[in-house]
């Protein structure tokens, strides 16, 4: 199983291969746990989301378009996890009638930020790094993680209007910095 990439493992999971599922979990769960912890400080929520994510992978790998087209298995996995995390925030907010999970800025840049920075020109990288942290945080959720404004507001524990305002301010600042 070590020689197979995640896409092939996912294709085998789609055919009901339990060993492939175990290998996919072994390879991807540490990475996914770190990404979830960057967005949620509650270890119980992270553990629940991780379990829900892999249950969804087992159940729906057969219908997943990337299983047959060779798309990004990790991207598909993260999409499931991000949506499960937002769902967990929604459930908790309904129970407690207030934002329930604190978020925090990571001490070191996230791997996806470093990868994105490596693939862009120096001007864009400087413009992004010059943005205030609260604007970068909204951009990360909406652009890198592909979340909607509503999902981002739940993830970051702020009103949806604030998310939209910060996203707009970030776009304006980037446009001005790059012109």
Automatic annotation (TrEMBL):
Q: Which SUPFAM superfamilies match?
A: Sigma2 domain of RNA polymerase sigma factors (SSF88946), Sigma3 and sigma4 domains of RNA polymerase sigma factors (SSF88659)
Q: Which parts of the sequence belong to the RNA polymerase sigma-70 region domain?
A: 24-95
Keywords of the record, alphabetical order, are: Sigma factor, Transcription, Transcription regulation
InterPro entries per the UniProt record, alphabetical:
RNA_pol_sigma-70-like, RNA_pol_sigma-70_dom, RNA_pol_sigma70_r2, RNA_pol_sigma70_r4_t2, RNA_pol_sigma_r2, RNA_pol_sigma_r3/r4-like, WH-like_DNA-bd_sf
Gene3D superfamilies xref list: 1.10.1740.10, Winged helix-like DNA-binding domain superfamily/Winged helix DNA-binding domain
The record's family statement is: Belongs to the sigma-70 factor family. ECF subfamily.
This chain belongs to the protein called: RNA polymerase sigma factor
Its lineage opens with: Bacteria, Bacillati, Actinomycetota, Actinomycetes, Micromonosporales
Respond yes or no to whether keyword Transcription regulation is given for this record. Answer: yes
What positions does the domain RNA polymerase sigma factor 70 region 4 type occupy?
123-174
């Amino acid at each position: 199983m070590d020689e197979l990439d995640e896409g092939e493992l996912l294709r085998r999971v789609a055919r009901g291969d339990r060993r492939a599922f175990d290998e996919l979990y072994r390879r991807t769960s540490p990475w996914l746990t770190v990404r979830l912890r960057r967005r949620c400080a509650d270890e119980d929520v992270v553990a629940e989301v991780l379990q829900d994510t892999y249950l969804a992978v087992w159940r729906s790998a057969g219908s997943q378009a990337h299983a047959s087209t060779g798309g990004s298995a990790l991207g598909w996995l993260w999409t499931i996890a991000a949506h499960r995390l937002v769902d967990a925030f929604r459930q908790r907010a309904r129970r407690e009638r207030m934002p329930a999970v604190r978020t925090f800025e990571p001490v070191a840049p996230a791997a996806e930020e470093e990868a994105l920075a490596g693939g862009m020109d120096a001007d864009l990288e400087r413009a992004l790094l010059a943005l205030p942290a609260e604007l970068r945080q909204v951009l990360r959720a909406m652009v890198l993680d592909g979340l909607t404004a509503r999902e981002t507001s739940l993830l970051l524990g702020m009103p949806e209007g604030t998310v939209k305002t910060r996203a707009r301010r970030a776009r304006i600042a980037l446009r001005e910095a790059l012109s």
